[in-house]
Structure formats: structure tokens, C-alpha cells
Design goal:
alpha/beta, 206 residues, two-stranded antiparallel ribbon, 6 helices, globular
Length: 206
């Protein structure tokens, strides 16, 4: 299997990737956190937000992240929020494997996204995602609990953080509960732009 398993998230300066309340999961704070991505030309085209948009390194990184992804894995909390907020043509355009206890038939959306619901944990979900991705990479899309489960299980090869000039004060911390005795990191890149700082790390077993 040639592809990598990775995650790519925006994070506040105080370490949060989402509000605590599911009702606010895509509310004001989340919009502020993601403010850097919405003006990007690739993202605007992907979500059909209108013509135009910024080009540059931020735009390149958004495009590279989507283009390397052959399949995604996500948790039920993220799916529940996205099911209400995503457009009919969800932005993934790949198979997405949702880790859940809910039994549900695959949900096919226009544009190439099909959600598959996996009831027996992260490893079977990841195995199915690897098969679906082929030579592509598998993205652990979120949320924080699902990312952490994969990281602590030694299933993540690398990750990227877009560190945004935003403070949350409370919410879901990316590394809350990380198994620091097991996970070691190697810095790959640090790229500041006008909007965020992009940090990329390879994950090693300590």
C-alpha cells in the first residue's frame, strides 16, 4: 500500500480545533478558525462558492491536500454536523468511511462523494479506506476524537496544522489525551503565509 495516512486541520493558537458544543461546531468560532481557507480559489471552486479567489501558497496547500486524498475517515460527530452544513456536492469527492454505531446504507452524493458507515471501529474503517484509496493517501478528516484515536493507535504517518491567529479559550483540543510516551514527531516543514502558519510533521513511534 503506497499511500500515507494523514490528517490536516486548522488549529487556534491555544490548541483548539473546534468548539465544544455540537450546535456550534460550524458556528462563529469555527468560521473564524477557517477564515484563511474560504478565500482560496481552489476551495471556492470546490464548494461552488463563486468565481475568483486568492492564489498563492495557501491555495496550493488546499489543492494539494484534496488532490492527494484517495479516501477519508471521519467520526460520527463530524458527519452529523456536516450532513446539515455541506452542500449537496460534498467537498470530498472520494469515498468517506464514517466510524459510527449507527447502521445505515451507503449515502451517495452528487459529485463523487459516497459515505460508508462502519460499525466495528477505526481499524476496519481505515482498512476499507486504504483499499478504496488505492495509491492515494487516506485522510483522517476528523473530528478531534477520531484523529486522536488513530494517532494513539500508531496509524498516522504524518499531519499538517494550519495555525491560525485565533484564540478559542475552550473547546476541543487537538492533542488532549495524546499518548506522548508512544508518539514522537519529526518536523518536515514550517511555512508562514499572511493568513496562517502551515506546520507539517512526520509521526514516529517513540
Amino acid at each position: 500500500m503506497a499511500g500515507k495516512v494523514f490528517f490536516s486541520v486548522s488549529m487556534s493558537l491555544d490548541g483548539f480545533i473546534a468548539p465544544e458544543s455540537p450546535e456550534e461546531l460550524m458556528g462563529r468560532q469555527w468560521v473564524e478558525l477557517q477564515r484563511w481557507v474560504f478565500p482560496q480559489r481552489f476551495f471556492r471552486e470546490r464548494l461552488k462558492l463563486g468565481s475568483g479567489g486568492e492564489e498563492g501558497r495557501d491555495n496550493d496547500i488546499v489543492r494539494e491536500t484534496f488532490e492527494r486524498t484517495g479516501a477519508s475517515v471521519m467520526g460520527k460527530r463530524m458527519f452529523d454536523a456536516g450532513e446539515q452544513a455541506w452542500p449537496a456536492e460534498a467537498p470530498f469527492r472520494t469515498p468517506v468511511f464514517v466510524v459510527t454505531h449507527e447502521k445505515r446504507d451507503p449515502w451517495e452524493r452528487p459529485g463523487g462523494t459516497t459515505f460508508h458507515f462502519v460499525n466495528d471501529g477505526i481499524e476496519p474503517a481505515l482498512e476499507r479506506a486504504r483499499e478504496a484509496a488505492g495509491d492515494g493517501d487516506v485522510r483522517i478528516a476528523g473530528g478531534g476524537t477520531t484523529i486522536l484515536e488513530h494517532l494513539n493507535a500508531g496509524l498516522v504517518d504524518e499531519f499538517s496544522i494550519a495555525l491560525a491567529p485565533v484564540l478559542f479559550g475552550s473547546g476541543i483540543r487537538l492533542f488532549e489525551g495524546v499518548d506522548a510516551a508512544r508518539v514522537a514527531l519529526e518536523q518536515v516543514r514550517a511555512e508562514p503565509t499572511q493568513r496562517v502558519t502551515h506546520l507539517t510533521y512526520a509521526v514516529r513511534e517513540r
